[in-house]
Amino acid sequence: QYILGIETSCDETAAAIIKNGREIVSNVVASQIESHKRFGGVVPEIASRHHVEQLTVVFDEAMKQANLDFKDLSAIAVTEGPGLVGALLTGINAAKALAFSQGLPLIGVHHIAGHIYANRLITEMHFPLLALVVSGGHTELVYMKEHASFEVIGETLDDAAGEAYDKVARTLGLPYPGGPHIDRLAHEGQASIDLPRAWLSEGSFDFSFSGLKSAVINTLHNAKQKGIELEAKDIAASFQASVIDVLVTKTAQAVDKYQVKQLLVAGGVAANKGLRTALENEFGKRDGFELVIPPLSLCTDNAAMIAAAGSILYEKGVRSNLALNANPGLELLPY
Ligand code: ATP
Ligand code: MG
Ligand code: FE
């Protein structure tokens, strides 16, 4: 079984082919970061235009690297949402055109289901499991009792973790995307500044990062008024310590409550060195428990993860028709 995956939900144009749900045959990603950098964030219109230009290039390359023909493919999986509507539409229309012209099944995939299924390219999934999704637009704890059964047990009430990283980085005058810069600075500084941790109500697995972001801005502002020079590296270290503390503590509580066998980590913020170390310290040596953190290239947006999720949906008989539309606010529900 070969599944072609297409992903265009944000600022990466990607195509990939996965064999039998777990083996990467080809995985091509064209990033647009350079085009968006000078605007300090992703500009939706520019993203759509780039996708239109890059889609055929990326798709051709994925087919060429795989050395496969259309007749070898079992289905085409494409990100249906959430994401930028114009960006999503470019990938969906390409996938529809290919599915129609080649007579192949079409499968709409939830972007976050894709991020979670990136883990299946590393290891087999053992249920029940928990996925910690930390990306540019999402911070969620997802419980899965079996394949394609997604239950969101906690999510951010405001900013996503990655969004908070990018906003704090911007405040510190660092380039977009700011996550990697804060991560680097955090390792040079000391977590010496007292910043809040949003625990929310007792037993809640929800998150909130906008208060932390405001606290960073206020701390900088107050220090400036008093003529105190705060070091960016210490702000970065203190901010990162707060984010990691909340993420790891809540995840540990959820792992205990749901008695899961695996913790899968997903999304761009999983690239964070401090978070990876903290997760390894907390979950790395538990008996009968597996912590899975994919390599960086599978944490950020790619199409291999969409094909991996698409493969399970294909086996489950999930199919979309040619009326498939972009759904920017698509909810993550059991398929
Ligand atoms: P979503 O999947 O929710 O739609 P997205 O696909 O745009 O969002 P990803 O590509 O998964 O998000 O991740 C991008 C985010 O990851 C950015 O906010 C970026 O700053 C953050 N990020 C990347 N590397 C690091 C790092 N080392 N530390 C912290 N954050 C990081
Ligand atoms: Mg991106
Ligand atoms: Fe993503």
TrEMBL record:
Enzyme Commission number: 2.3.1.234
UniProt family annotation: Belongs to the KAE1 / TsaD family.
Superkingdom, natural source: Bacteria
Entry's localization field: Cytoplasm
Protein's name according to its UniProt entry: tRNA N6-adenosine threonylcarbamoyltransferase
Residues noted as binding Fe cation in the record, renumbered to the chain: H111, H115, D301
Gcp-like domain ranges (all copies): 23-307
Organism: Metabacillus niabensis
Cofactor binding note of this UniProt entry: Binds 1 Fe(2+) ion per subunit.
Cofactor (UniProt): Fe(2+)
Binding positions for substrate per the UniProt entry: V133, V134, S135, G136, G137, D166, G179, D183, N272
Purpose of the protein: Required for the formation of a threonylcarbamoyl group on adenosine at position 37 (t(6)A37) in tRNAs that read codons beginning with adenine. Is involved in the transfer of the threonylcarbamoyl moiety of threonylcarbamoyl-AMP (TC-AMP) to the N6 group of A37, together with TsaE and TsaB. TsaD likely plays a direct catalytic role in this reaction.
Gene Ontology MF: a single term: tRNA N(6)-L-threonylcarbamoyladenine synthase activity
Catalytic activity: L-threonylcarbamoyladenylate + adenosine(37) in tRNA = N(6)-L-threonylcarbamoyladenosine(37) in tRNA + AMP + H(+)
SUPFAM superfamilies, per the entry: Actin-like ATPase domain
InterPro entries, per database record: ATPase_NBD, Gcp-like_dom, KAE1/TsaD, TsaD
Keyword Zinc belongs to the record: no
Annotated keywords: Acyltransferase, Cytoplasm, Iron, Metal-binding, Transferase, tRNA processing
Group of enzyme by EC: transferase
